[in-house]
Amino acid sequence: MAIPTKPRISVIITTFNAPDELWLVLVGYQMQTERDFEILIADDGSDSRTAAVVERFRNSCDIETHHVWHENDGFRKCEILNRAIEQANSDYLLFTDGDCIPRPDFLAVHLREAEPKRFLSGTYNNLPESFKGLITEANVRSGLAFRLKWLRTNGLPFSSKCLRLVRNKTFTSVMNRLTTTRPTWNGCNVSGWKSDIEAVNGYDERMRYGGLDREIGLRMNNLGIRGKQIRFKAICLHVDHPRGYMNDEDLQRNLSIRNDTIRSKLTRTPYGIRRAA
């Protein structure tokens, strides 16, 4: 009997009751040039519409796709992320959000740039709310949605951030070296070794919305695992939307946890994948 092989990379996608956005994201992964991967949908309590999207995707392609779900009991993104980490079959994990549509070379870039004791720090390319409805399945499949000229023609204001959408290897390499933005663990577009993530015990499950991703990156830094900037190479699109789940109380609590991680130089949280007895 043949021994099952591990996928080269596990893609962990967080979502909550955004089935239309998730479908476009999954279409983006269906179009990837890299084919040796699995998908885990880290679902923070969505209703049956999300399960239907996952099943539709499974029926449309042969990409191994797992739906990791728990009941809706408020914002528990860190908990469902930790459950997805436990179920991931690859030694290398990529984290992103269920409304961040990947360019076809997205996974290939992450795998090409991966290094021992490093994590890769990307970001999303934010589009105005007016692009909701303009970004369609057809132009994700064709690649049109990722072309700067098309985006500008359809209302994307010009800024220095548009330079991230320029497809030129020499240019993107230079820009990643020149950027003054520090490489941090950004949950919309970040990857790292499963063993490193387990070493810091994954996400701190006390945290709610607001910088929860950055905190795990701080623990990695304290352990000697450094970030590497790929924001001009690994491209995904995100259509802006209201964030009604933001509140100052959660932000302040998260900031307190992050400050403690920095002050105490913590490398591991007791509130992560493995809870202290």
TrEMBL record:
Annotated Glycosyltransferase 2-like domain residues: 10-116
A Pfam family of this chain: Glycos_transf_2
Record keywords, A-Z: Glycosyltransferase, Transferase
InterPro entries membership: Glyco_trans_2-like, Glycosyltransf_2, Nucleotide-diphossugar_trans
Record has Protein biosynthesis as a keyword: no
CDD domains: GT2_Chondriotin_Pol_N
Enzyme type, top EC level: transferase
Stretches assigned to coiled coil: none
Molecular function terms, GO-annotated: glycosyltransferase activity
Gene3D superfamilies: Spore Coat Polysaccharide Biosynthesis Protein SpsA, Chain A
EC number assigned by the record: 2.4.1.-
This protein's name: Probable two-domain glycosyltransferase
